[in-house]
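Render S-adenosyl-L-methionine-dependent methyltransferase in 3D.
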Amino acid sequence: MSSALASEARRPEEDEVEPGSGLEAEGAPTGQAENFIEAEEPFDDGDSAVGDDDGASYTTSLKSVVTDYIEENKRRYHAARGSTYFLPNDEAELDRLDLFHHCLTLRAGGKLHLAPIDPTPERILDLGTGTGIWAIEMGDKYPDTRVLGNDISAVQPEFVPPNVSFEIDDFELPWAYSSKFDLIHGRYLAGSVRNWPRLIQQAYKFLKPGGYIEMQDFDMHFYTTHGEFKPGCPLDKWARAVASGVSAFGMDPHPGPQLKGWMQDAGFVAVKDNLLPMPLGPWPKDRRLKEVGTLDLMQFLDGLEGISLRAFTHTHKWEPEEVKVFLALVRREMLNVKMQVQHNYHIVYGQKPWDAKD
């Protein structure tokens, strides 16, 4: 087992929550206002799990067309240009991504974006669109806007709103769009970007003056403010092993807290980092956060093998069966509401200055 599995947990530090947005945590002790989620009390042993690993998904499977893929450990992965993207792109993963979309939108107060964009944008670009669900819902929300989703895998549905389209391309290559955008959006790109500063700089170049970039991403560290989660427990070891595996692939596993700095360095102004603690499981007292936590738990349970296999087998040299045995311990802790586990979700946006010169 890698030494990365034994390192201590780190609590998140100075982040921001937008005042008055309805997204900030309440009732927090001094010094933990940004991270505290009030737990429902009391817990009894009968409330330590929600469903099981084979529970029904909230989403319907999407049919996909994949033009370039390989199979490892009975999972399908994108293979173009020697990709080492650590997540699969098979039907099970697409279902999980759609479930996670619902979870993240709910955590953002039901909003698809927080950036205060023009009410009648002309062009929107969604980087790493995945199943295309965010782009499709944005197309419904803004029917007069051209919405373009970009991804390296052709896993998007065939029937979409007439103002929505998709392209198969690597967004880390130089861009060649003929027209600029009002909003460039990316979500859940942790572990899929090799050069974040360059990506943010490309977004700056291809935004109109006054346009917005919005990135929504994570810090992969788990922590608790009042629960039984401890550094060195199987869940902590798992998260750190996945993060070190992603790093070994040349990707950043913790982009969330760095997004604000990258945007400011690229020249964006009025940059706002909205820190949203994400509960894992149905332990919060607040009903909306309880639903968010339940959905977050479901997507982690659905995706646990897919998230883990490449990181553990490629980087840490575990056998697939060893990984599956270890994941049984991780599932048990995820299902234990007494752990009161949470992790941090950042929604960060910034504006290209109106007087910007490209």
